[in-house]
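We close this part of the discussion by returning to an individual protein. Part of our work consisted of pairing the sequence of a single chain with a tokenised description of its backbone. No coordinates are needed to read the tokens, only the vocabulary itself. The amino acid sequence and the backbone structure tokens for this protein are reproduced below:
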Amino acid sequence: MAHHDIRASFTQGSLLRHVSVMSFTSSIGLMAIFAVDLLDIVFISMLGRDELAAAAGYASTVMFFASAVNIGLSIAAGALVAKAMGADNEVDAREYATSVAVLSVLVGIILPILALPNIEFLLGLIGATGAVADLARNYLWIILPTTMVSGLAMVAVAVLRSYGDARGAMYPALLGGGVNAVLDPLLIFTLGMGLNGAAFATVAARLATMVMAMGLAVLRYQAFAVPRPQCVARDFREAAEIAVPAVLGTVATPVGAAIVTREMAKYGHDAVAGMAVINRMVPVVFSVVLALSGAIGPIFGQNFGAGRLDRVEQTFFEGLRFLAIYVLVMSALLFVLRAPIAGLFDANDMMRSLLYLYCGPLALASFFNGAIFVANASFNNLGHPGYSTGVNWARQTVGTLPFALAFGAIWGAHGVLIGQAVGGAVFAAVAIWLGLRVIQAPCRDPLKGQFTCPDMRMQVVSNRSYR
């Protein structure tokens, strides 16, 4: 039934081409999702009630935590499956994929059960009060129960990428984006459901994405098997060793965002609204940067699995080179289009000046975030996932709060954004240095100096017999 040739595809050919193809195709899928998020905000702001847009902002902060867990599991699936494919071991690849899928379902059931009864408390933590909190709560009661659906979709997409199927990994997100874009105006305006309409559209989109992603993975590669409890139990540790640090690392991002949002809140609703627009715009414009970590991971993983360390190092540099070119081009574009962008969101004085600041010099700072993503992909796929956690947390806390406070004290709301960018530059330098240390000696712990694997091949093709 599987009619696609299954071989490790990234161990041969031009690495820059692999990096570009994987990044662009991953980013198109991501861009579809984020573009719809942006449309949500545009539609909701058309209703002319500020509290609706604010509620959507607060809700998405809470949702990000659930997504972070799913992203972590998908990173684990990607790293394990790519390594097995690099070592030409299809059975392991299939079992790893299945085990992580089962874990994502379990987590997707447990999270909403824990979060929903405490939703008022969680919203209060990030500063939502009164009517805005009520709106955000209703929104989350609709979306959070589908955490499991979105988790399965992410795992299936990561598995498709690990097989080198860049296109197959792109289609499910495009379908989801399409479903959302069609249903959004229908539910929000035509049926008059407002913010809840946007939530139901998202639920439908998640279902469509999941069905297509799982379908492609099973039909093309038979990438999933029937789950067996003993397989899941056996793979749990290996999956958790990657997923837990990846989840912790990803959760750092909303923590950083929350810090910045709280600092911005000191300068009024307009400042927060301006930042909400920037936060929704960044992922659309720089979706390729955000896609880098997931896109470049399988390239690291397959070459590492095949023992091709020379190509692993080259992948790192090609990733940074690709990133630099892309960020320069997009920043120039934002600068040229800054007036129409501000117009699109009816931006007033404060909001407009924040948007202009971002679309001017600050957009270039996306390079530093991207460099951290490339380094994280190397940590996650070369057996040091804990480093990605450390780098992310340092960047989102020590690399955010002091800088946002210091620059905010000088330049107000604008300073908060500038501080966030400066902190990113500092930690990007650390991440690149650590990434290269890991690549040059993957069997040596660069921070302790001791060796962790006696033989390259032995570490890669681990003994996975039933215990």
Q: What stands out?
A: DSSP finds 18 helices and no strands in the chain. Residues 453-467 have pLDDT under 50 and may be disordered.
